[in-house]
Design goal:
This protein starts with a strand and ends with a strand. With about 130 residues, the chain is an all-beta fold. Strands 2, 4, 5, 6, 9, 10 and 11 form a seven-stranded mixed beta sheet that branches. Strand 7 and strand 8 form a beta hairpin. Helices cover about 0% and strands about 50% of the residues.
Length: about 130
């Protein structure tokens, strides 16, 4: 069983930056993909989206096209932590951000339904 704990959310003004962290409770297996998923206010979980994914084994990364200029996903294997660096934040980035993980894959995973483990989420609020 993998437990994921997010941190780093908060309230910022438009143009600001935040760095989210996700620390699994146990070892991150090399055949694991992790992702950052966001659920906008007033939206159902099913309407959320994966904004970035990373494959732990060979460090492959995927970021949603519209966010590639602003979001960066990375990992620190020594700290067993995955990050999402978000720059130039916009009010529309306001959402609850969740860390997710799936084991036994070979690449990044973009579909939320593929993920087996989820954190409790961290709120990001961007004011104009």
């Amino acid at each position: 069983q993998v437990q994921l704990v997010e941190s780093g959310g908060g309230s910022v003004q438009a143009g600001g930056s935040l760095k989210l962290s996700c620390a699994p409770s146990g070892y991150i297996f090399s055949s694991c993909a992790m992702a950052w998923f966001r659920q906008a206010p007033g939206k159902e979980r099913e309407e959320g989206e994966v904004v970035a994914s990373i494959f732990i084994g060979h460090d492959s990364k995927w970021v949603k096209d519209s966010e590639q200029d602003r979001f960066t996903i990375s990992q620190d294997k020594a700290k067993n932590t995955v990050y999402l660096q978000m720059n130039n934040l916009k009010p529309e980035d306001t959402a609850k951000y969740y860390c997710a993980a799936v084991v036994g894959v070979r690449w990044t995973v973009r579909a939320p339904l593929e993920y087996d483990y989820w954190g409790q989420g961290t709120q990001v609020t961007v004011s104009s």
